[in-house]
Amino acid sequence: MLDVRKRGQSSENKESKDGDKVNENNVVDKEVVDSKKPDINRKLPLRVISRIVVIFSLLIVVYFSSKDDKVKTFAKQSELLPGKGLVVECSQAYKDDLDKYEGCFPKECKRFVTDKVISVREAEELLAIAKKGFQLGKPAGGVSILDLHSGALSVGQRFVNIYKTGDAKNTFNQNDFNTYRVVKDKIKYAVAHHFGVNPNKIYLTYPTFFSEITSKAAITIHDEYWHPHVDKESYKSFHYTTLLYLNDYNTDFKGGRFVFIDEKFNRTVEPRKARLSMFTSGRENFHYVEKVSSGIRYAVTVSFTCDNQHAIEDPSIKNL
Ligand SMILES: *[C@@H]1O[C@H](CO)[C@@H](O)[C@H](O)[C@H]1NC(C)=O
């Protein structure tokens, strides 16, 4: 005990007197000791470490490049796409269902992404409308829905009807509904044009809604948008699904890419303000949305059916 204390004391004293010198001495001492050991012992760890580093870097490169092979960017955020399409084979169930409706069968099943149908200005006007609506209530989880047709808005774990609560009256005006209708009609004609169907044979259907997605944890099953699904199986009336993005992937939010799940590899659509994505709603367009990891993602889902029994009306100021 005494010995230890003494040693401790003496070394403390040394350090306080001439600290740097002590350190130098220590280094010299160590080297002397090391050089007494055989050469291999000193070099082996270094060689092993450098090998491990090389192997791991290779593994990382291989991992990421093989991952890249499995996911392709179909529509990049930074690109202004006049139009990019991919034809896919219609699923049998989709074909069987469409046979019931004359003049609504697409020339071919596909996805089509374009940044030229809706203007940035229109997207910004819609974004302003969406934000006004979403201010009227906050959801419990990370997903909020605003349906201007029915008035449904996510509040807590439920929906409230903002047309019934009177909240909508002081929020929306005629101009908002006009903008909404103009954009909806443009989308409808774009669907008709790109899928080769008569615009009078497709009808806006339920649900058509704005979505606001944050990184907040899911509370209800409806918050879990990241599960792969087929739109037509979630909503029987769907025949053509369209998504209009209102803000930008990577600048306004991270994560939240739309992913088509295909056999060989998946294909992503990166949201971009005013980007319109249209696709047939059957299993040929199996998809999910990646979790949003930060920021807020805004989009509108505008869906169409061939079944006029499931047509819905445009939202109107009369509802207020
Ligand atoms: C595509 O995404 C799905 C769902 O996340 C996944 O199960 C599948 O492995 C992905 N496909 C490829 C080829 O990576």
UniProtKB/TrEMBL annotation:
Q: Where is composition skewed (Basic and acidic residues) in this entry?
A: 12-23
Residue limits of the Prolyl 4-hydroxylase alpha subunit domain? 109-305
Presence of keyword Membrane = yes
Transmembrane domains' residue ranges: 44-64
For region Disordered, the annotated ranges are: 1-23
- List the Gene3D superfamilies hit by this protein, alphabetically: q2cbj1_9rhob like domain
Name the Gene Ontology molecular function terms of this record.
dioxygenase activity; iron ion binding; L-ascorbic acid binding; oxidoreductase activity, acting on paired donors, with incorporation or reduction of molecular oxygen
Q: Which cofactor does it need?
A: L-ascorbate
Q: Which regions form coiled coils?
A: none
| Superkingdom of origin | Eukaryota
Which GO cellular component terms, listed alphabetically, does the Swiss-Prot or TrEMBL entry include?
membrane
Arranged from A to Z, the UniProt key words for this protein are:
Dioxygenase, Membrane, Oxidoreductase, Transmembrane, Transmembrane helix
| Protein name stated in the entry | Prolyl 4-hydroxylase alpha subunit domain-containing protein
Q: Which organism is it from?
A: Chrysodeixis includens (Soybean looper)
Q: What is the lineage of its organism?
A: Eukaryota, Metazoa, Ecdysozoa, Arthropoda, Hexapoda
